[in-house]
Amino acid sequence: MKVLLIQPSRYRRNGRLDKRKKRWLLGMTLPYVAALTPPDIPVQIKDDLLEEITFQEDCNLVGISFMSHQAPRAYELAAGFRRRGVKVVMGGFHVTLAPEEAQQHADALVLGEAEETWPRLLQDFQAGSLQPRYQAEKLSDLKGLPVPRYDLLDLKKYKLLNIPAQTTRGCPWACNYCEVTQVYGGRFRHRPVDEVLHEIQEIGRLTGSQFIYFVDDNFVANRRHAMEIMERLIPLGLVYGCLATTSVGDDLEVLDLMARSGCMHVNIGMESISPDSLKSINKKQNKIKDYERQFKALEKRGIGYSVNVMFGLDGDRPDIFDSTVDFLIRIKAPVSFMFILSPRVGTKVREQLMNEGRIYDHDWTKYCGFQVVYRPRHMTPKQLEDEYWRANRRFYSLSSMLRRLTPRLYTLHMLPFNLIFAWCVRHRVHPLDNY
User: Fold this and answer.
1) pLDDT level of residue 30 (50, 70, 90 thresholds)
2) Which of 38, 54, 177, 345 is 20 to 30 A distant from 258 in Cα terms?
3) How many domains does the chain have?
4) What is the CATH number of the domain that holds 72?
5) Are 6 and 63 in contact, with CB atoms under 8 Å apart?
């Protein structure tokens, strides 16, 4: 028995399949699924963005994990292998939240977390009794997780060798544009600290990388757990990045420890500077009046940060674009990742927009965060998309970079990214497109 795991690419606006020689960042999902595979079963990982899928690969079982904007390509890949008589298994957020659709294209689905179901599926396959759906009865306790098989990837094909690791899963906030609570549950679950540290050390041994990226939705959600991990990171001399909410800037003790333990960058979900817009997406945890003080606390400790911004929310009016960019320039935000609201399958905002008859485009390739598929409340779809790109160009203009990045030494490492992002947005390419 041989298993092939595939990360699909996606189709671009011109109808062409996206193919590249290198990818910015590597993902964790397929190396982790490979690690869940028993050691006596050979497993291979192929990245459809970087490699050709010939449909002649030597395998008995194909596993495909994907997000909504990759679904059409994933279904095409599945069809190619199934025509050969190769069984296809699908998993990931889109499959978990749209199982009826995905079931039409696969022999089996893995719904939700895979720790218990993937090994059981492999046993059933070997016994000739593959079932159409596999879903664990309960969420994983996150104990005894294997180290992702990053050794199966050609790491030379990734521009930034920041290796993903995870310390928690789940989120209690239930923002209505996000699927995490539906898939991972409404509370934070935590991995044993010793196991996290073991994984980080193994990752360093396997990859040679000294940069870790914690993919938790909020790395410091459990203060005690995060602080114990950070204390243990100090003697390792690593550099790391993470995600957090804006409130990370309120806990100065945590920030001091983040700086001492090697945190170089924090990605923060600011989303909007409009109270009405934050209310429309149930983003209760963000306090607009505190943004500047919270970000300055990071800056004071030399911790770089980026802010995520979302346009097209129900509280957004045409002046939101300029007011947001004005704010970001004034506070000297080093990097901003701007998105258009994407009502992905399984989200509450999709349910709302569907009920109101406002979604007019159901082509999954456009659910990528920078195309409009619904009718905004206070502007036209074209206005939203045009103003979105104009906001990006303005934020990454030369004059903006000069005001935001100089003369502060701690942001100089952000200058290359700003220059690259400036080129991207001039060509209407999102900086994180197929990262």
Assistant:
1) very high
2) 177
3) 2
4) 3.40.50
5) yes
Q: Is residue 146 part of a domain?
A: no
Task: Report the chain's C-alpha Rg in angstroms.
Answer: 22
Residue where a domain stops, chosen among 69, 101, 135: 135
Residue 143 lies in a domain: no
Residue 115 in contact with residue 145, Cβ under 8 Å? yes
Which residues, 6+ apart, have CB-to-CB distance to 315 below 8 Å?
272, 274, 275, 276, 277, 278, 279, 280
Task: Report, as an integer, the average pLDDT of 413-424.
Answer: 91
- Residue 313 to residue 334: CA distance in whole angstroms: 24
Residue 433 covered by a domain: no
- What's the pLDDT tens digit per position in 94-141? 999 999 999 999 999 999 999 999 999 999 999 999 999 999 999 999
116 and 189, same domain (yes or no): no
Burial (CB < 10 A; 0-12, 13-18, 19+), residue 167, is buried
Residue 30 belongs to what domain range?
3-135
User: Quick check: helix, strand or coil at residue 74?
Assistant: helix
Contacts of 61 by beta carbon, 8 Å cutoff, 6+ apart: 1, 2, 3, 4, 86, 87, 88, 89, 122, 125
The gap between the terminal CA atoms of the chain, to the nearest Å, is 32
Q: Which of 102, 135, 168 is the last residue of a domain?
A: 135
Residue with token string 């506070």: 331
SS3 track for 154-171 = CHHHECCCCEEECCEECC
Q: Do 99 and 215 reside in the same domain of the chain?
A: no
317 near 347, Cβ under 8 Å?
A: no
In 170-318, the DSSP E strands lie at 189-190, 211-214, 239-244, 263-271, 304-311
Q: Is residue 46 part of a domain?
A: yes
